[in-house]
Amino acid sequence: MKYKVRPYLASLLFAGVAALPLALVQRLGKICGWILFIVPGRYKRRAKTNLAHAFPNLPPAALKQSLLAVGQLFLEMPYWWVRRDDRALNKQVHCNDWPLFEQALARGNGVILLSPHCGCFELLGPVYSSHYPSTVLFRPPRKVWLQDWIIKMRTRKQLTMAPANKSGVRTVVKTLLRGHTVGILPDQVPVSGEGVWAPFFGKPAYTMTLVQRLQKLTGATIFILGAERNPVGQGYKMHVKEMTSPLPDDPTEAATIINTEMENVIRMMPTQYLWGYNRYRQPREKPA
User: Matching InterPro entries, A to Z (predicted)?
Assistant: First the structure.
C-alpha cells in the first residue's frame, strides 16, 4: 500500500509547486537555499571546498549565492516536471540557435546534447523536446517505485527517459541510429570500468567514456548546452555550442575535452553549479 501512496503524495506535492508563478517558486527556492547556507552540513562543506578550488578569486559571498541557486533548482525541478505547456516554456527560455540543431539532425547521424549540472539544467530536456524528439539518460534511484515515478513524471510526448544501465544505453544507441537526439549530463561519476581519470578544474575526476563511444559508433554531432538562470522571474538564457571536430579516439583525451567544455559552461555562471556534488570521489564498483 505504501508504494502506491508515495507516488501519489509526491505527485500532489509537485503539482502544488507547479501551480505557483515561476517568480514565486524561485523566491521560495531562495529561502530553501538560505536554510542550506545557514545550517552546517556535508553538502555545504563540500560546496565550499569545491568552489574555492575551482574559483579561488571569487568573493566569500559566492558560496551563499551558489547555495541559493541550489534552493531555486530544488523547486524549479517539480515546476518543470509537471508543466506541459510548451508554448509557455519557450517564452521563458531565450535561444536563437534552433537552426543549428535542425541542420545537425538533417545529417542523419543523430545529436548528443551535453550539459553540466549547472543553471536550470532540468528544463533543457522539456524545452528541447518541445521542438525535436529526444531521449535523456538519467541515473535511476535505488528504490523501484521512485524510479518508475520519475520516469512517469519526466516523460513527455517527444521526451523519453532512459536509465543509466545496459537497457538505457541500448535505448540511447537506437535513438542515435534513428537520427534523433540524446541528452547526457557528463559530469556524473560513472561506475568503475566505465570511465577514465581526467582533469576537472585542474583536479583528477573520474569521467565517463560513454559520450566518446557513442559518437564513434554513430557519428553524431555533439552540442554543449547550458541553461543560465536570469534574475528572479526573468526566465533563462540557453547557451549553445556545437563541437565541430569529432572527439579523439583516446578515451582520456576525449574525456579531457569534455571536461574542459563543461568548465567553460560553468565559468559563464559559476554560482549556479552544484558544487556540493562529490565530483572527485572514487567510482563505485559495478553491480554484479
Answer: LipA_acyltrans
Q: What is the dihedral of CA 4, 6, 11, 16, to 10 degrees?
A: 140
- Judge contact between 137 and 151, C-beta under 8 A: no
Answer yes or no: is 279 within a domain: no
* pLDDT 10s digits, 210-269: 999 999 999 999 999 999 999 999 999 999 999 999 999 999 999 999 999 999 999 999
Over the stretch 196-221, which tens digit does the pLDDT of each residue have?
Answer: 999 999 999 999 999 999 999 999 99
Q: Are 172 and 220 in contact (CB under 8 A)?
A: no
Return d(Cα 136, Cα 161) in angstroms, integer.
5
> Rounded to an integer, what distance in angstroms lies between the CA atom of residue 286 and that of residue 214?
20
- Centre a 10 Å sphere on the Cβ of residue 5 and count the other Cβ atoms it contains: 10
pTM higher than the cut 0.85: yes
Angle at 232 between CA 8 and CA 234, to 5 degrees: 100
Distance CA(172)–CA(164), nearest Å, equals 10
Q: Would you say residue 148 has pLDDT above 90?
A: no
Supply the range of the domain harboring residue 124: 2-272
* Domain assignment of residue 222, yes or no: yes
Task: Yes or no: say if 84 and 156 are a contact pair by the CB < 8 Å rule.
Answer: yes
DSSP run (H or E) holding 206: strand 203-208
Cell of 244: 565541430
